[in-house]
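Lab notebook, design round three. We kept the backbone fixed and only want residue identities now. Task for the bench partner: fill in a sequence for the structure below.
Input structure tokens:
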């Protein structure tokens, strides 16, 4: 797919077709403006015919707007698979949450993305395509970018699709891409330690976020099967190595699940785990998935948990809840659409 190409790769592609390199730049700019093939007016029809099968054919299938202004998009790819992308507006600009896989195989019990398993990985161009479609939807273009921040935290485990995610980061942060600073990119992982080590070697300036959600291995395994492969101690060591090589602060997501990980003892253990690590904890009240039997705590309890962490010297905040009225949690809306389609 042509959206998988970097600027230089696109020029090489058209040169191999026997065409001047500037045609590659025209195609590249059209893709990064979110244009369909039919909307490109500055290339010959003969060239359109040549590239039609490789030109990106993803589209916004549905859009839902929350009372709080959050927008959730269902993006459909050429093979009929769909993913979710979320647009959130803050004082500093727009943040887009992107999916890296169609579904997920990690099996976390608090996440709806895993309910239908993993269908396939997204290519770098398909990850990029979500952003390009949304950027255009809100009035942006290749030369007038509206998206300021990227969160790789939608459906899928980004580090389970390592090569495509890394190429996406390279492309989107390139001066010939949308030139989004790597400091404005955050990647969330459930803790694939071997891939965290590989990511550290990349020396990116992105923010690494760890979905931790427990302080004891046996408790973590109850809600996150990946805990049977990697111990919490291994994840912490991987984070220390990542910080040593990148000097980037590590973020930890901690979803509060009633009766599972929300006790005072959990806060004490968490503070000890993060001692001597430049870390910040995002406390997340559980966005309940009806297919699961997990229950969330109240926001008041979440603030108390955060205050306890801070009393032990750990930086912590309670994440703002967004998009609850439009199935805000990862995978909820996609799962609903799949279920509705199967009923027909």
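Proposed sequence:
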């Amino acid at each position: 797919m042509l959206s998988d190409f970097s600027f230089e790769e696109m020029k090489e592609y058209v040169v191999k077709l026997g065409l001047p390199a500037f045609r590659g730049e025209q195609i590249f700019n059209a893709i990064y403006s979110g244009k369909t093939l039919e909307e490109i007016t500055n290339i010959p029809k003969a060239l359109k015919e040549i590239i039609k099968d490789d030109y990106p054919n993803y589209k916004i299938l549905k859009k839902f707007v929350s009372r709080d202004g959050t927008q959730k998009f269902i993006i459909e790819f050429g093979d009929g698979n769909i993913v979710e992308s979320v647009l959130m507006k803050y004082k500093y600009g727009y943040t887009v949450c992107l999916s890296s896989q169609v579904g997920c195989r990690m099996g976390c019990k608090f996440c709806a993305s895993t309910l239908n398993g993993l269908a396939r990985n997204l290519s770098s161009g398909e990850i990029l395509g979500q952003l390009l479609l949304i950027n255009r939807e809100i009035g942006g273009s290749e030369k007038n970018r509206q998206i300021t921040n990227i969160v790789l935290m939608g459906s899928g485990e980004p580090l389970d699709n390592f090569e495509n995610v890394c190429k996406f980061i390279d492309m989107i942060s390139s001066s010939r891409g949308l030139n989004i600073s790597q400091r404005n990119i955050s990647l969330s992982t459930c803790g694939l330690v071997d891939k965290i080590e590989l990511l550290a070697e990349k020396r990116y300036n992105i923010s690494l976020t760890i979905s931790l959600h427990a302080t004891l291995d046996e408790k973590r395994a109850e809600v996150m099967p990946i805990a049977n492969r990697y111990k919490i101690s291994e994840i912490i060591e991987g984070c220390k190595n990542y910080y040593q090589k990148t000097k980037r602060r590590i973020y930890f997501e901690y979803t509060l699940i009633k009766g599972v990980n929300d006790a005072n003892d959990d806060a004490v253990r968490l503070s000890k785990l993060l001692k001597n690590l430049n870390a910040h904890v995002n406390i997340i009240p559980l966005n309940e998935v009806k297919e699961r039997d997990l229950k969330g705590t109240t926001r008041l309890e979440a603030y108390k948990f955060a205050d306890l962490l801070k009393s032990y010297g750990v930086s912590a905040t309670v994440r703002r809840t967004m998009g609850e009225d439009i199935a805000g949690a990862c995978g909820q809306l996609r799962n609903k659409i799949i279920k509705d389609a199967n009923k027909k």
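Keep this in mind before ordering anything: Residues 166 and 202 are 9 Å apart (CA to CA).
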